[in-house]
Design brief:
The chain has 316 residues and is mainly α. It contains 13 helices and two strands. The protein has helices at residues 2-28, 36-52, 60-68, 72-97, 103-122, 135-140, 146-168, 172-182, 184-189, 194-220, 231-245, 251-274, 282-315; strands at residues 126-128, 222-224. A two-stranded antiparallel ribbon has the order 1-2. Helix 4 packs antiparallel against helix 5.
Amino acid sequence: MLDILLSSTSQGLLWSLLAIGVFLTYRILDIADLTTEGSFPLGGAVAAVILAKDPTTWPASIQSLFDVHYMVAPIIALLFAFIAGMLAGLVSGLLHTKLKIPALLAGIITMTGLYSINSRIMGAPNISLIGTDSIFSHAQSLGFSKINSAIVVGAIIVFIVILLLVLFFKTEIGLATRATGDNIEMSEANGIKTDNMKIIGYMLSNGCIALAGALLVQNNNFADLNSGIGTIVIGLASIIIAEVLFKNKSLGLRLITIVIGAILYRFILACVLELRVDPADLKLFSAIILVICLSSPLIQKKLGFSKLGKRKGGAN
């Protein structure tokens, strides 16, 4: 059980960046964005190509940096993956705000286009990174085991992302972005350029999602063109689990609870696999878990009403 818990924690920390990205559009902006399923493998594709490329073929300025800092390649891979995700979010944001395409369709259009772009970037359906340096292999060289390296690196990166997001949402632009999601009509009445705020939200969201894809590629030592299928369900399940267990929290605490939700979600899936369920059925169980999480508030409410009715009946 301890091994399952440690494994779930390591995977949950890495996947929590995906959930945080989904949270930014789903809860902050109140937008259902399906760009997720394209930006996640985009981050992985960009990271894999950078890591698989011989550093001696890099520009001289970057080569000199590589000679001084041996961890620069994995960090550059994460940085470029984040930027690529932001560009994907920018496309969805422009389609939705400037061309007035409904958010759901804008995400589907970008996701569809990204499949071809990801294929072009990778040049193959998958890329193996076995034997290449990653941010996790460097952590292992310091004495950490594979699982512990994922936990340590994941915790550090998640902490940095949450800290930066909390600081951002305390700025004028961040508050305007939150206001846009809360009440777009009131925001426009107060002079907020809501279209720009939505675009910023899209970019931050998909940047975090692509960063998650890059981290998981480094952890798994391979990139897959189809890795984005079903990722929106993983993000939503983590968010809903967090909201069911932890209610009425400030933004910073909500982001932390999403990390906990992602860990719990991975723990549930790990327990399902321990029951010798066919791995091919894992997506089905993911969908079932999401349905249970989404319906649990309604079930609790109805049970509460039934208990209340019984008490009233007994009193009479």
